[in-house]
Specification:
2 helices, 4-stranded antiparallel sheet, alpha+beta
């Protein structure tokens, strides 16, 4: 499975697989031309922990070039650990989904 990764402001490596990208554009058609915006959002956006699932985070960033009516990209990420073949715990941080929203500036 092909994947592309980047690091967030806290140094967490986060990857996006082709399978997740296909899910994103199937369920959020407005994202088709904004794949790179996902990585910019992960690197420089604001991060909030999910209130119900502490391993899930939403990264949000404002953009001026989104589909008409939208102002921000939201990227939902799962930050987890997994054991590698040698039995060592490794980070397994991946994009679950991404979408555009409209938010007023404060």
């Amino acid at each position: 499975m092909a994947q592309e990764s980047t690091r967030d402001k806290l140094g967490n490596e986060i990857y996006l697989t082709d399978e997740r990208w296909a899910h994103i554009v199937e369920t959020h058609e407005e994202m088709i031309f904004y794949r790179n915006h996902i990585f910019v959002t992960l690197r420089t956006g604001q991060r909030r922990q999910d209130a119900f699932d502490p391993s899930k985070y939403k990264y949000t960033k404002r953009f001026t070039d989104l589909t008409e009516g939208f102002t921000h990209i939201v990227v939902v990420v799962k930050l987890t650990q997994r054991e590698d073949a040698q039995g060592t715990e490794r980070s397994n941080n991946f994009v679950l989904t991404a979408y555009q929203v409209s938010r007023r500036s404060v």
